[in-house]
Amino acid sequence: MKRIYLDYAATTPVHPDVLKAMTPYFSEYFGNASTIYYYGRESKKAVEEAREQFAKLIGADHSEVIFTSGGTESDNHALKGAAFANRHKGNHIITSKIEHHAVLETCHYLEKEGFKVTYLPVDADGIVGLEELKKAITEKTILISIMAANNEIGVLQPIEEIGKIAREKKILFHTDAVQMTGSLPIDVERMNIDLLSVSAHKLYGPKGIGGLFVRKGVKISKYAHGGEQENRRRAGTENVSGIVGFGKACQIAGKNMEKEARRITELRDKFIAGLLKKIPEIKLNGHPEKRLPNNVNVSVKYIEGESMILNLDMEGICASSGSACTSGSLEPSHVLRALGLSHELSHGSVRFTLGRSTTAAELAVVLEKFSEIVVRLRKLSPLYKQ
Ligand code: PLP
Q1: pLDDT in tens, 88-143
Q2: Which of 100, 229, 327, 331 is the most exposed place for a label (fewest CB within 10 A)?
Q3: Domain count, the chain
Q4: Cα–Cα distance between 255 and 131 in angstroms, integer?
Q5: Which of 222, 253, 284 is the last residue of a domain?
Q6: Residue 358 lies in a domain
Q7: What is the tens place of the pLDDT at every residue in 183-222?
Q8: Does ligand 1 lie within 6 Å of residue 102's CB atom?
Q9: CATH (domain of 186)
Q10: Residue of 8, 179, 196, 351 to test ligand 1 pocket, by largest number of atoms within 8 Å of CB
Q11: In this predicted structure, which of 62-76, 214-228, 289-303, 328-342 has the lowest mean pLDDT?
Q12: Pocket test for ligand 1, best of 12, 178, 335 (most atoms within 8 A of CB)
């Protein structure tokens, strides 16, 4: 069966050119980047080239980026690092209710360590209010962490405006840009971002590698103690092949971004219009325009997200209900609940995320199959009255 993959927000396949770039760094150039002989120098050179490629994609200087094991580590390092290093200035952190668990769980941990955290609400479209943010700031606020784009509903936050507010108040601004990097432009200068998290596997790079931007002059405490790698900012032998793949993925994303964003946005909007027209009592979750080019998240009344996903899978279609990290849990999505959706609609959501290989023909098949599934499942639903 030829499968249709529509879960690019969960992960992406490694780009063939990325794989090609990585391959020699497994066994040909296998040196430890900290050694000073030939093999080590070759590894070090490749790591530094990748650093330039990553920095360029986000408008940073190469000295301002460190490699991590992915988005989760970057978020943990940014939040804990900024909180502990600035404890003498205050103990208040502001974030939002719709952050990824990598941020939310880190905030819960920091609360146990004596920090106070404000979780800002979002409006019905999923957007954080700037007035609410301003009101939440106190003289003890040391960090604002608001994601650039949400992983479940794809909604984009006004990060440039948030960065401006943070800068005026001399508060550090971290953004989790794991979902946005590679699909829309990021400029850490223009956006006044101090700390930014990225993950390679969301932009056609390998899993288990990512990056953290730390603005020059911003002090964050260490996350892992050990060797002196990454300029003494992240201990541990470098994942050279992963870093090379990440750098290459950044370079490819930067080259194709504009054209690809336009192509995917067009496919997305046509797909959304088709769903809303073909399926009665369906709701698009999140702002219709201020969202990632590839994100379609809908709630279908009277049926469970999980049953739709299983039925789609039987038809060879891969989609997700809520985020990949939370599916399997019976709790409704914290993001959809924050939008004010009922328990029932929060449970009845499906996320389709488009990507590099997605075609109009594939989406036409998905539209057809998905509407048949909805009719079938609604017939079985005790809640549905025909
Ligand atoms: N932040 C966001 C917004 C994400 O979507 C994800 C992954 O789904 C992460 C953080 C965690 O990234 P990683 O899988 O690289 O740990």
Answers
A1: 999 999 999 999 999 999 999 999 999 999 999 999 999 999 999 999 999 999 99
A2: 331
A3: 2
A4: 36
A5: 253
A6: yes
A7: 999 999 999 999 999 999 999 999 999 999 999 999 999 9
A8: yes
A9: 3.40.640.10
A10: 179
A11: 328-342
A12: 178
Last residue of a domain, which of 219, 253, 287? 253
Range of the domain at 319: 4-11+256-380
Pick the more confident residue, 322 or 30: 30
Question: What is the per-residue pLDDT for 328?
Answer: 55
Q: Identify the three-state secondary structure at position 54.
A: helix
Do the domain assignments include residue 56?
yes
Residue nearest to atom 10 of ligand 1 (CA): 71
Contact 136, 130 (CB under 8 A): no
CA of 305 to the centre of ligand 1 (A): 21
CA dist 53 and 48 (Å) reads 9
Take atom 13 of ligand 1 and give the residue whose Cα is closest: 71
Verify whether residue 325 is a known catalytic residue. Answer: yes
- Binding site membership of 72 for ligand 1 (Cβ less than 6 Å): yes
- SS3 for 126-180 is CCECHHHHHHHCCCCEEEEECCCECCCCCEECCHHHHHHHHHHCCCEEEEECCCC
Q: Are residues 247 and 285 in the same domain?
A: no
